[in-house]
Amino acid sequence: MKIEIDWFYLRKPLIICSIGLVIAVIMMLASTKYETAQQDQYQQSLSTLNTTHQKYSNIIKDIDLLEQYRTQYTRYKASGLVGVERRLSWVESLESTNEVLKLPTINYNLLPQEEFKRPGFKVKSGIDIRGSIMDLKMDLLHEGDLFTLIKDIKLSIDSLLTVESCSITRRGSVSSSLNTQNANLNSECRLRWLTIDVK
Amino acid sequence: MVAQVWFGNKLESDVYFEPDEQGLDLFSDYLRSFRNEPVRLLVDLIEEEFRLIKIPFLRGSDRQSIITRNYTKYFRHAKYRFATSQSVEKKKRKEEKLLLIGLTNDNLLEPWLKIIEETRTPLSGIISLPLLSEDYTQSLKSDSKTVILVSQQVPSNLRQSVFVDGHLILSRLVPIASFYQSEYANDVVQDIESTQRYLISQRIVERSELVQVHILTNKRHFDKLTIRCAETKTFDFKILEIDQVLENQKIQVPEDQDLSSALFCHLATKKTRLNHYAQPKEKKYYHHHLASLALKFCSVVILTVSFGLAINSGIKGWLYQSTAIDTALIEQKYKAKYKQLNESRIDSSLPANSMQHIVQTVDLIQKKYLNDPEQMLTLVSQDISIFSDLRVKKMDWFVSNYADTKEANAVVWGKKSRPVKAENSKIPHTNGLFEIAVVEAEFLNFDGNYRYALSAVDDLEKAMSQSGKYAYVEIIKRPLDIEPENSLTGGVGKNRVNTNKVALLAFRVVREVNSEN
Predict the structure, then answer these.
(1) Residue A118 and residue B331: Cβ atoms within 8 Å?
(2) How far apart are CA A123 and CA B73, in angstroms?
(3) For B245-261, how does the pLDDT look when each residue is reduced to its tens digit (9 = 90+)?
(4) Same-domain status, A56 and A152
(5) The model scores a pTM over 0.90
(6) Are B56 and B94 a contacting pair, CB within 8 Å?
(7) What totals of helices (H) and strands (E) does chain B contain, helices first?
(8) Chain A residue with minimum CA distance to B119
(9) How many independent structural domains does chain A possess?
(10) What is the C-alpha to C-alpha distance for residues B311 and B317, in angstroms, rounded to an integer?
(11) Closest of B146, B144, B173, B172 to residue B157, by C-alpha
């Protein structure tokens, strides 16, 4: 038997249920909106904090790095290792070195700067390493003069200097005795003078 | 019609309505005042009949069709009828003992039910009083097989219900005129005896069987009934005072009860789902009432859940807010510290990390990439000096990225201009950073003894290889090219012009450059 529904009887609970549903939806929407807004604000403040903290960490790190590397860097800068290549100083150093050694002749030839490359060597970001090739031709009394010359040049220019090649040739025959007044050996060397600069 | 309002075990009020027009109007107003409270109708009528039948033990629609057939047989015109199972007997075939009950006069209930429907009062059920009293009888815990429960719900009628093994067998409502007179006890006992005779005639009880009789009575009749019943030895009488019973059952009533209606009404209030006679149509508003309760319950659940979720979101939001405030405070502190450090920091035109990179790069170059010929040439000179008749003519020293590079001019730094492997070289084409020395030498005062010169070259090669100072040692020119793959030109003879003989030697040594060197 089908029972007819008396909607009038059920109107009150239906209204209560509907109102309850509306209130529930409003409450949930409002609270969710509030939560989302506060969450966004929180995320924003967290992001700001992270940025500020990052800046703070960076400055601490910078200060530490400055403390650690400033002295050495200042020395490098003063010596000319960092900055523009000082070719005049090089010529002066060579002359002053030979004043002591008194080699008969030293000819030099400085080529234009070029990029420094070596196997497994990677240039760090923010800096630029360049090298000038210097070809030296000289007459030597004996081979020890060559090593002394290289050592003295390195000391006088206080920079990064690497020898790439050296050739020593006897001037006379192997049976002739060595002359103590004139050059017995010819030598040709290729040196690379390195300078570092900031990009 | 007596209407009782119960609150738990307490009888709040009871109102009597006459079965006339005025009484019905009053009943209608009375129900309207209750705002849709559910009611139960407990019927205690003379027109209620009882039939005990046996049917085959069946289930489902088969059982229902048999019951319907029996309804037609015993209660053809009765609208209100009910069947209750008493027991299942296991004989040759299983049989079910059924008690059929029905109201033979529908007209008695109709005016009241009509008002109940008009007032939209939820009717949960129409309950038969004798059937309801089965529960009470079982609580009496009688040791007799047959029990007769005697009670009076109205002064004019005496109800006698017969129970066998705790199950209702039949019930009689007989008029009694002496409720307010002295012959009452006598009349009650006579009626019980009459019932016993009927039971014997129907072979429900044996003649010799001692039947236990529980009489629910008021204070006024208690003593008289006790004295009268004591005179009759054919029954085992238990006289129960109704007020005492109510007290034992913890039922609170406003005044002393003359009748036992309160006891049965209270039993009916405890059975929320019990219904014997009410049709689905008559329970319509009860179902509506349940639906209304369900809707209200749903509303409460929805509101509670949403409130809970809203509170949860609110708390989360509040926590986010307070955390954001804390975060802002911490951020301010960092900002202040940053500002302080920035002001006190030594001003530098160069970023600290660039400074770090420069210093680290200089360290690396100093450690690994600064080469000097002195060490290697000294080593080579020491090795040659072992052989006193050898004089160096030329020494080439260079660094290269390949072990087999022939000469300094062939060195190309960088990956793109990789040189091809040198021909006829025993040195492998290995990539790395190598120091290479190429030495040309001559035997002093050579007398043409090539065998000696070649032997000396072999000794030199062996000495340098075994010294461990070089990665590779290669003789690139010998005093005499006696290798099968090379061509050999010369002259011998008496007439040959005497020329100065020379024994030349050239070799290449390679060693790998590493930071320890």
Answers:
(1) no
(2) 112
(3) 999 989 999 888 899 99
(4) no
(5) no
(6) yes
(7) 12, 16
(8) A9
(9) 2
(10) 9
(11) B173
* Domain range enclosing A160: 87-198
A10 touching chain B per CB within 8 A:
yes
The single residue listed with the structure tokens 């209270």 is B266
Over residues B108-115, the mean pLDDT reads: 92
Distance between CA atoms of B222 and B377, rounded to whole angstroms? 142
Contact between A20 and B299 using a beta-carbon 8 Å cutoff? yes
A78 at the B interface (CB within 8 A)?
no
Contact check, Cβ <8 Å, B292/A82: no
Can you state the angle between helices B219-231 and B184-201, rounded to 10 degrees? 50
How much of chain A exceeds pLDDT 90, in percent? 43
Taking CB atoms and an 8 Å limit, are B356 and A68 in contact across chains?
yes
- Domains, chain B, in order of start with CATH, read 2-47+105-282 (3.30.420.260), 369-512 (no CATH)
| Token representation of residue B145 | 């097989």
A95 burial class (0-12, 13-18, 19+ CB within 10 angstroms)? exposed
Chain B residues with CB-CB distance to A125 below 8 A: 357
Give the one of B280, B351, B356 whose C-beta lies nearest to A1's C-beta: B280
- For residues A106 and A46, membership in a common domain is answered with no
Query: Across the interface, do B280 and A32 touch by the CB < 8 Å criterion?
Result: no
Does the pLDDT at position B298 exceed 80? yes
Q: A193 CB near a chain B CB, below 8 Å?
A: no
- Among A177-191, B158-172, B359-373, B457-471, the range scoring the smallest mean pLDDT is A177-191
User: How far apart (Å, rounded) are the C-alpha atoms in residues B397 and B510?
Assistant: 10
Residue B212: count of CB within 10 angstroms of its CB = 18
Q: Residues 228 to 287 of B: which have CB under 8 A from any A CB?
A: 279-281, 284-285, 287
**Termini Cα distance of chain B:** 122
Whether A84 and chain B come into contact, CB under 8 Å, resolves to no
CB-CB under 8 Å, B411 with A165: yes
Q: Are the C-beta atoms of residues B39 and B121 closer than 8 Å to each other?
A: yes
Cβ pairs bridging A and B (under 8 Å): 269
Q: Please give the average per-residue pLDDT across B265-283, as a whole number.
A: 89
> CB distance from A48 to chain B under 8 Å?
yes
- Residues B510, B470: contact at Cβ < 8 Å? yes
Looking at the fold, whether A169 and A126 belong to one and the same domain comes out as yes
